[in-house]
Amino acid sequence: ARETAVFWGIVDLKYDPARPVLERVKVLETGDGKISKFSHEGAKIARFVEEHYALKYSVGSQKLTVVSTDKRLTNGFLQASGYAHLLPRQVCLPRVFAADLHNRLVEGLRHEDGSFDADVVVLKLCNRARGAGVLMVPVESLEEKLEALLTPPQAAIEALQTTGARRLVDECASDLQLADAEEEQVRHWWGNECPSFVAEKFERSMPIERDGRQFDATMRVSFVLRLRNGGSSRGESPAPDELVIDWVGGYWKLPKQDLSCPDLRERCLSAARASGTQPVQEEYLHEVYAAMGDAMQQLFGGADPNEDMLREGSAEQSELAAFHMARLAMSRMKDMDRVRTRLDAAEREAACAKPGFCRDTAESFICRARGVCAIRPGGARSAGRDKWVEAQRLFRRAVDLQPRNANARFWLGMAALELEDVDTAVNEMNVALLLDPDFKGAYINLGAAYLRSRHYSRALEVSTEGLRRYPGTHQCNYHIGVASFQLTTDAIRRQAEGVSPPESVGHLVQNALDNLLAARESEDASKFTPQRIGYKMSPWLDEDLGMVSSCRRFLDGG
Prior knowledge:
four-stranded antiparallel sheet; 25 helices; single chain; five-stranded antiparallel sheet; 13 strands
């Protein structure tokens, strides 16, 4: 029988056994195992958890996901629990450029004795994962880089929101006009909805060798939290001493390039899916587990932090405290009265901040959160037109407060899509993608919007790019399948007119069939069967079966 677990998590860290004992492990970030990728060596960890544990995430455990995906909260809670030695030195600052910002950043990273030994600083967005927005910057280049990240040229922003979005419709839906990988990271900074950022001292791992080359890899270890003696949390996050941790394995995630590469990001940021993984020696894993002690129980156990705790941990930034209050409020969507009360508190906290960009950014996030609340009672799928109209008003207000908020743009697009204004939906979601090129929800829902407007080629392009970035996303498979099937009709007509060669039709039909079947057979899609969630209508319709049958008949020569 599988054991019941309340949380499955991951820790990404740097490890070097050559350093003094208390400096060997440096935690970079934590995450939710359910939404993390386990490539190559990591795949067996995911299988082990699936085979040996039954995950029963309670209402309270939603707090765990918020904490695990926020770099400032993770750092603050671990420090408060006595694990500062596991963390890179970190400073949290407002996302506004100022002449003294570089000096404040350096001062914040100094040791207690006043020394500063960092030659490289890592800049991170508090609320992003998958390496989005992570930049390794030499200290001598910090001021220039901070100015580029925090003061985007207004002309560039306006171009993205007008001509850039138009080009995605007119030319190619997946061409996000990125000059290089660096520009994508800069866009993440421009479109982020958190009012603050963090800077950390750059940490390194022991060199990992593969094929005669040495890499600065990142170690990922995974764990499961269980309730002691099989108890229950009664809907709230259990106390740290009620949790037992099972470490379930680890592996090295390799970066794209080895240590000889001059590009810091390419040689230091892990890219396991593209570059591969390596096993970790058991002795190193056990040293990491020992060093972690009860850090994960302390981090994820206990009730939500109260308003005073969030203020204390927000580096005297009311806008950041407000942002965290609102994020934690949104983790309890089954109790809407509680959510609204907490959003009210977040709004009051934001009002204490100095007027300007950071306050506007926090208020934009709170407004977006209220818009989501408007459609959530009973689920977004069941929200009526009046609820979507109210949500649209709130999302528009969020965009007015912060026009660069990619999330607010996306939700404004979602409201337009639900209200059958497809052109507006496409425009807003395209702006969201231009500001955040790794936005999974935008790739999925843009595919749906293009299908509704019969822009089948654009649906195919954007869904293919979404699938490239997020392999296994069954919604993208489905949209590719439908778009390819619809394009087949046009290809057959053109073929009859002698315009299109016969093989193009066969390619489209095969693409339609492969992706429709991939969508139907995916693990995620199985969670949406009527038996699992009580829908009156299965998401796999008779029309979908008809498309599959037609494809098979065509390929069989019928």
